[in-house]
Amino acid sequence: MEAPLNLKRRSALLLAVCSALLLAACTGVVVHETRSEYSRIRVVDHGSQRALYFVGDADLDVVETLIDLRQPHVLQHAYSRTAMAGLLYRPEPSSCLLIGLGGGAIVRFLNHHWPALALDVVEIDPEVVRVAREYFGTVESPGTRIHVADGREFLERSTARYDLILIDAHLHPDARTDSTGHPLSLRSDSFYRSVQDRLAPGGVVMFNMIAGRDSASYLESLRGAFPAVDVYRPAGTGNMIVFASPRGPLASEAELRARARALDRRGGFGFAFADLPGALTPSRAPDGSSR
């Protein structure tokens, strides 16, 4: 999910995004709006682009998903492209768990490019699942199952193992979250243990974090729970994409770049995997271990 911005920053950035991306909310057409237990949800079109917003107080909205209806499998947001660096840490995964559906841009991307991947998707809000299906074309497939459930409870009950676990769940800030909307139930020691238990050998977990006053403590808790942590800061966003492993070091930057070049030779992704390691925050000791 794209990071929320304060009003001044949001106005400046929104103007830039309007001209660069024709982002739907600028002058777009509202095609659907509804409320759920968790969010006020709005779907907006501008030309071929469709955006899913979680609308907060004073209409300060969060871009949850942006797709191009002509190419729904091409990721539009820098944060979601950076999240796909997980495919560099764990090349050719056979199984993946995604917590947080949104409109389903990541699901559409993975289904298109990795059709053999066994993908479990967990979304707490049934209204989000309905909107993703009806307005973004995100549906189950032979390899993809969408579960309406709490991510923490799903992991506690599950017996499956995953090569990749992607945590991309946010709510508007309230008593259930920290100040930037990260659900508190998904940033606890018990949740981290559940993640570790459900990772297959060599598996990697991704956390999509939003920079804010609570992000430092969130990152510190991840560093305490996982011995190997890499942090990415995709340009033009307020997101921090964190990859972590409970066992052994993560792939070196040289390894990541070599794997990225190999993927780019396949082509057709709509972005270059080789650009992703450039967002990696220098955070490793000389021996490659995380600091």
Low-confidence stretches: 5-25, 285-289
User: Please, how many domains?
Assistant: 2
Could you spell the SSE succession in H and E letters? HHEEEEHHEHEHEHEHEHEEH
Q: What is the spatial order of strands in the main beta sheet?
A: 7-6-5-8-9-11-10
Average pLDDT for all residues: 86
User: Any idea what the CATH superfamily of the largest domain is called?
Assistant: Vaccinia Virus protein VP39
CATH top level class name of the largest domain: Alpha Beta
Helical percentage: 25-40%
What class, by secondary structure content?
A: alpha/beta
**Number of contiguous helices:** 10
Largest sheet: 7 strands, mixed
Tell me the CATH topology of the largest domain: Rossmann fold
The portion of residues forming beta strands comes to: 25-35%
Count of strand segments: 11
User: Which architecture of the largest domain per CATH?
Assistant: 3-Layer(aba) Sandwich
Distance between the termini: 26 Å
**Shape descriptor:** globular
Rg measurement, Å:
18 Å
How would you characterize this protein structure?
With 291 residues, the protein is α/β, with parallel strands linked by helices. The chain has 2 domains: 7-68; 78-279, Rossmann fold (3-Layer(aba) Sandwich). The protein is built from 10 helices and 11 strands. The strands form 2 sheets. Strands 7-6-5-8-9-11-10 form a 7-stranded mixed sheet. Strands 1-2-3-4 form a 4-stranded antiparallel sheet. Strand 3 and strand 4 (61-68) form a beta hairpin. The longest helix has 15 residues, at 7-21. The relative contact order is 0.13. Residues 5-25 and 285-289 have low confidence and may be disordered.
